[in-house]
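step=encode ok
step=design start
structure_in=
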């Protein structure tokens, strides 16, 4: 499995967009985008990558949530590549409604799609067990002090993720966290458990 972090937009607010390819660009690999950015900016960069001969450059897109900086680029990507779009939101551009624990192939690895509300009600994360990799969208993992207030939904999301074997975290904004992903999640969980929790 290879993960490409596509270049960020130069003058518009946008999310990170990741392209996952198989190791050898086999025909059966599922070239997968995690999120779509805000417009058509990433298309030129996708076109320049070696995504395999005789197959779609993008065969599927997984949307972590429907906020515009992650979702708006779909209206450009969908007519260009005709991918299958997975999301936890009812939108005409989404082809497959994600269920918690759904398994899909990304690149040449099996991934599990988990509901991980906390940033938004429709947030999902993409976990690849064989690699210890998770794409978390905008799930908050760098927090303030214990005087803050958090929702029970967010607390339960952190508890769920703390049970996984996570090494690397690819967030929706900012740089990836390599090697100590589970430590970061458990540290965040500890802080939230010591804070005020609301329904």
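sequence_out=
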């Amino acid at each position: 499995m290879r993960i490409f972090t596509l270049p960020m937009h130069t003058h518009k607010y946008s999310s990170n967009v990741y392209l996952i390819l198989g190791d050898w660009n086999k025909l059966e690999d599922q070239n997968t985008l995690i999120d779509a950015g805000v417009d058509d900016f990433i298309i030129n960069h996708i076109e320049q990558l070696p995504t395999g001969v005789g197959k779609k450059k993008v065969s599927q897109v997984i949307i972590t949530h429907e906020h515009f900086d992650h979702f708006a680029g779909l209206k450009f990507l969908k007519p260009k590549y005709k991918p299958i779009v997975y999301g936890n939101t009812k939108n005409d551009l989404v082809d497959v409604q994600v269920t918690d624990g759904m398994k899909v192939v990304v690149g040449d690895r099996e991934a599990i799609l988990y509901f991980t509300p906390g940033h938004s009600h429709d947030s999902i994360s993409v976990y690849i067990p064989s690699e210890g990799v998770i794409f978390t969208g905008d799930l908050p993992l760098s927090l303030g002090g214990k005087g803050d207030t958090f929702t029970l939904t967010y607390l339960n999301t952190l508890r769920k993720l703390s049970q996984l074997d996570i090494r690397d975290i690819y967030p929706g904004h900012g740089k990836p966290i390599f090697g100590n992903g589970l430590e970061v999640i458990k540290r965040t969980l500890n802080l939230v458990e010591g804070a005020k929790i609301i329904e």
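step=design ok
step=annotate ok -> The chain has one domain: 2-139+164-179.
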